[in-house]
Design a protein that fits this description.
24 strands; transmembrane transporter activity; 5 domains; membrane; transmembrane; single chain; MacB_PCD; alpha+beta
Length: 858
Amino acid sequence: MTVFRTSMRNFFAHKGRMALSAVAVLLSVAFVSGTLVFTDTMNTTFDKLFAATSSDVTVSPKAAKGADETSQTGKPESLPASVVETVRTADGVKSAEGAVSSMSVTVVNADNKNVGASSGAPTIAGNWTRNDLRSMEITSGHAPRGPTEVMVDADTAEKHDLAIGDELRTIAVTGDFRAKISGIATFTVTNPGAAVIFFDTATSQRELLGDTGRFTHVNVTAAEGVSNSTLKQDVAAALGGGPYKLQTQKEAADANRADVGSFLDVMKYAMLGFAGIAFLVGVFLIVNTFSMLVAQRTREIGLMRALGSSRQQVNRSVLLEAVLLGVFGSVAGVAAGVGLAVGLMELMSSMGMELSTQDLTVKWTTPVIGLVLGVVVTVVSAYVPARRAGKISPMAALRDAGTPADGRSGWIRAAIGLVLTGAGAAALLMAARADEASEGSVFLGAGVVCTLIGFVVIGPLLAGGLVRALSAVVLRMFGPVGRMAERNALRNPRRTGATGAALMIGLALVACLSVVGSSMVASATDELDKSVGADFIVQSDNGQPIMPQAQAALEKAPDIAHVTEYKWVDVKLTAPDGTTESDGIVAADPTYAQDLRRETVAGELSAAYGKDAMSVGDAYAKKHGVKVGDRMSVVFPGGRSAELTVAAITSDDTNVDKGAMYTNITTAQRYVPADKMPKNMIMFVAAEDGKEKEAYAALKGSLAAYPQYTVQNQTDFKQDLKDQIGQLLNIVYGLLALAIIVAVLGVVNTLALSVVERTREIGLLRAIGLSRRQLRRMIRLESVVIALFGALLGLGLGMGWGTSAQKLLALEGLGVLEIPWPTILTVFVASAFVGLFAALVPAFRAGRMNVLNAIATE
């Protein structure tokens, strides 16, 4: 109990000094808890939606795509209407209803604006059925009663200011058709963002499937007392086999959940990864805090030892303070995490993904994980300072000798750090020289970990030289005040190294990702310049195939030399070695050989567009021993097979169509039934010589009625690629900002405790003539040089990681290394301002000290 009371007294006596460390724990735990609450809430939202929209048993074609996939043909897989009648006769069936659902549509309003979701969620069109009443209710107007009426969901109507009587144009594979809004249906569960429109059954069949006698699936309702599993067996017996997929409500919901699960998992683990980085940075803050608190309480610890306290009791006293810090920070962090999750939900809602706080899910595991993580990390971080406190001898402490210095341990630390850094550098070099990506990624991971730990360990050793070098450039111009700031930064290299290391981690990741991102853009741009001969690229913004009517409008544009079709056809390939694989082959016009300049290792690519000919990539050729002239067995959609001659082997040393196999589009049309032939996912256009500007304007004009498609010249395409990578990097930088904020708190805490530690010295400096302004400047300059030291380590380390990663990515075709010097220099200069900001409060408090009281401080 005495140890506990002592820990409580010390904790609350230094509560101001503990506050910033508690904030670091709070932020880290909040990020973990917020991530778990946010992703659990998303899971709950989708689970409720899929459970509400799934019937007791669903019958669909066996070849039907997943819930998040659009059809390559523009028409979803369907089954004959006779199946509905057959299902109705099955035992245990209360009702069976045919349904139509398609995501291969675009809906525009009277202003030709796409009313689909902007968040990446699909636009779903179909017929209104009784099953829809499970998740929706008509709140205005009525369901569509004919081909000129359409009903929309309330969320879409609100986002796009749609009202009853407004006209919508639906763009589908069968053509464009118009209908006026007759009703608005509201979801009774949360709709994460999909735009949903309904037609009457006949219109849905005719316009979405091209056949009035078919449905995409059958919704089956069980009779009273019949379980879903029993109903599934009875329906299966009635159908007697066939190309059908039967799912109970739970199975359908699980399948739909799996379709979006990978996206949710990537988001979850990415955010947890950044939370882990914040925890790692927080470790340095906590270590510094407890090290300085132990140093400042040296005499107090000596008195405790002199009065009979053992080493273990002193150790436990410090660790109990760490437990208290971890508990307070973690409890507040869990609460803040719930708030963070709500904030993320609001942010996602503003971006088009609707999430309701009514679905807010806080599992019991979330606070437990947050509390355990926060406490464990805090206690582990405080262990070394606590152990050091226990080693203080009573006599040394009473004469204020401080914590015991161990020169031998310093040399051992330096040796270990140098070995780790050297091993890490060697691993990064091996990653850069690897011949296979899988092998290189192992070396890259080992190199990143070893160099990071190595730099942390040898931080105090590096601090001496780098701080002096930085001081010569930055501090010497400030005269004696600058020299005092330099000496203060060098006074305790271990503390300076730990403080700089906290900032180093976040900036190392920023630099690494900047190098990789810039190199990706530069590599893609270089590849486009070398490989792409087409003047324009036409594709959809939302993954939709290019509809026939849009293609026809495109081909009529003036000043066009040629238009190249590009279709991805799923096939089964049998190589000469007898290996059969499911793969895809690109069916394109022969002009594609002009639009994309592919290098070949054997044969000519133009020959692959001959009759019953094809090409393969060199990786596939090496794996299966394929040579020019060999015959490949290809099974096309619809079941027809062909023997195609390999006329060319293309080089895979590229990042455009890497590994692609090509054949003439007429060859594919010869073996693929018309209703199974995929639509173009992308098209390439070449302008007549000297008519590029005119052709560009003409193409945009020809597709003006189809806002889902974009026309890009090579400059547009490069800028779009740059913007996409830039947006991704900005998101990553935003998440890394958490780690940098924690690092800044570390600088603030270190300076604040350092000011307390040097109270008497500051009083003496003021007494001999140092002004308040000079004192504040000295502390600010000390903060600046520590921040620049951390930035120098981090940026140097990050550029090393990024360079090694780029060399590894060169195996995938990203062969250009580009160091973004403007970004690197901006971050370095910004680090100085970070140091200035961190020193504001400690410098202000130091300037307010009473000189006489400071001198009298022991």
